[in-house]
Design goal:
CATH topology of the largest domain: RNA Polymerase Alpha Subunit, Chain A, domain 2
Oligomer: single chain
CATH class of the largest domain: Mainly Beta
Helix content: 10-25%
Structural class: mainly beta
Distance between the termini: 176 Å
CATH architecture of the largest domain: Beta Complex
Strand content: over 45%
CATH superfamily of the largest domain: YbbR-like domain
Number of strands: 23
């Protein structure tokens, strides 16, 4: 009897344990079910040869993990890694499987799973830097001179891309500038079609720029007016007056030129003139004005008494 009772007790205990397990599984499935969650993670490179470079590699991939809701909800991007193994990869276009690992849950999907990438050897070129001015300077100012240091830089990257590099541009911003200035300009390689080639590396990555700012000048062509002084002798009269050239080009600040409509000669004394004459006369030029000539030939013809 005692043996039978003892056996029954064990049977009860086993059924109780199984019931507890079943209850636990039920609760876990109901309260903490298996779920899935997707993460966008950076795509890394491993075991890529030092003299090789990869073109057009995606920056990120989508990785889906599966696990209990408690585990999956606590997962973070840093818990998952995705990479491509480039061991023994050769130059050319190849398909590569993306490998993913996770410290939480199980990985159930990688998207994309495979990518086709172009591998190339790394090349290097020495190229000259060309300044490109951007922005609008202060009113009435312009760039008179630009100095760049250094004038040549080293450009490196995939050999086929490097072959398409046309020039290296230094963007110099002159927005609002009115005084001479020094600054640093970032460098960008560009292709022959003008597209920027950010996948190429430039050393140094920027250059020093020195800019000389000048007051912007204007050029006008104005008539020359001969100025007469004194009195001709009795019964004499001026038949014609002509200057050679008839006009003069002036260069100056636009504000200086704004009020000038003609340029006069120095006074021509008429008192002792009795015949047609030609004389070189200086021009009366305003201050702060550049002129293509400072004197003109004046031809005077007279009407003489009969």
């Amino acid at each position: 009897m005692r043996e039978s009772e003892q056996r029954n007790k064990w049977v009860v205990r086993i059924f109780a344990f199984l019931a507890a397990c079943a209850l636990w599984l039920y609760v876990m499935n109901e309260q903490n079910p298996i779920t899935e969650r997707s993460f966008i993670v950076p795509l890394a490179k491993t075991k890529l040869a030092d003299n090789m470079v990869v073109n057009n590699m995606p920056e990120t991939v989508t990785v889906k993990i599966k696990g209990t809701r408690t585990v999956v909800s606590s997962a973070r991007e840093k818990d998952i890694m995705a990479y491509i193994d480039f061991s023994n990869a050769a130059k050319g276009r190849h398909g590569f499987d993306i490998i993913a690992k996770s410290t939480v849950g199980d990985i159930v999907e990688i998207s994309p799973k495979t990518v086709f990438l172009d591998l190339d050897t790394i090349g290097e070129r020495t190229m000259e830097v060309e300044a490109r001015i951007v922005g609008i300077p202060g009113s009435g100012f312009t760039v008179g001179k630009l100095e760049i240091d250094p004038l040549k830089v080293t450009v490196s990257g995939a050999s086929n891309r490097l072959a398409n590099a046309f020039k290296v541009i230094a963007l110099v911003d002159i927005t609002g500038k009115e005084k001479n200035f020094e600054d640093y300009a970032n460098l960008t390689p560009v292709a022959i079609d003008g597209s920027e080639m950010y996948d190429l590396n430039v050393q140094p990555s920027r250059v020093q720029v020195k800019a000389l700012m000048l007051k912007q000048l204007a050029t006008v062509e104005l008539p020359i007016k001969p100025v007469m002084s004194g009195i001709l002798k009795k019964n004499y009269a001026i038949s014609s007056v002509k200057t050679i050239p008839e006009k003069v080009k002036l260069t100056a600040d636009p504000a200086v030129l704004a009020g000038i409509t003609e340029i006069k000669t120095a006074p021509i004394l008429l008192d002792n003139i009795e015949d047609d004459v030609e004389m070189q006369m200086p021009l009366n030029l305003p201050d702060k004005v550049l002129a293509e000539t400072h004197s003109v030939l004046v031809k005077i013809q007279l009407e003489k008494p009969r």
